């Protein structure tokens, strides 16, 4: 198995330790961070989706125009665009970017956030809708003749996509969601299932659940893990930076009137991270839950802390569990992306290559 690295592109410099400042869409910043990932050797960069934020496909279109090799992972929420149109939009963008597009399906775990876009379905209903949505998207991408579709949420008469993805048979589909409603849909549709940075035991459990769900459809799924690495020349310096990040996160949240403990978001992914954080701030070899505990695990908020060598070895522990994609982003987004590209990505790739070479050497 090879290993894939995904970074993230926001439209302004923002993180748990950097309050948003300046325009919501800072074109110069988008270009700077996109190039940092491209030059740093990342395989892809995620562009996130939120009901109040810039539109992810349009951000990717611009980021692709200023990069050469970087591919993209477009966060996309089913239900707000007709699936036939979404399939054609993504396929069109795939052509204009030279086949650099993947889609990350996020059904959404917060009723309050979804209501901002006028969506009032329950979580179970949303995942049922997502399954139908992806049925139709895949039909648009692959069908050589018009098709009909009759579902609870969508009815299509003689649908057909004249524009197919540049790559065959289709654009890669990443999928997020850890609830009981999400896993069966992931098993049917996900090419790559995305987890947040959980403990090794939690990751192994979820991988087993998704594989079981995929086997019912005769499918195999790859796995992605999202983490916030904290690296430094020494382990002591890395942990000192982690402590500083927690302190700055608390200070910014307090200044904004946000809670710093005791809050628990409704989505299953955050709840699983908080369950891990309840076990302690340092778990397994070097899994760090400090920011997750402060923010209520609002998103990708756990990390691995140590020297590049130590963090690379911890990543390989997840690789051994079946994770082949790592979505990594820092608290200083541009600076950390540069550091990862220089100090971490080449090291992990070398260790993975050595790991893959061992069975071949033993068999010869």
TrEMBL record:
Domain Luciferase-like: 9-324
Alphabetized InterPro entries for the sequence: Luciferase-like_dom, Luciferase-like_sf, SsuD_RutA_monooxygenase
GO molecular function: alkanesulfonate monooxygenase activity
Keyword list, A-Z: Flavoprotein, FMN, Monooxygenase, Oxidoreductase
Biological process according to GO: alkanesulfonate catabolic process
A Pfam family matched in the record: Bac_luciferase
SUPFAM superfamilies attached to this UniProt entry: Bacterial luciferase-like
Stated name of the protein: Alkanesulfonate monooxygenase
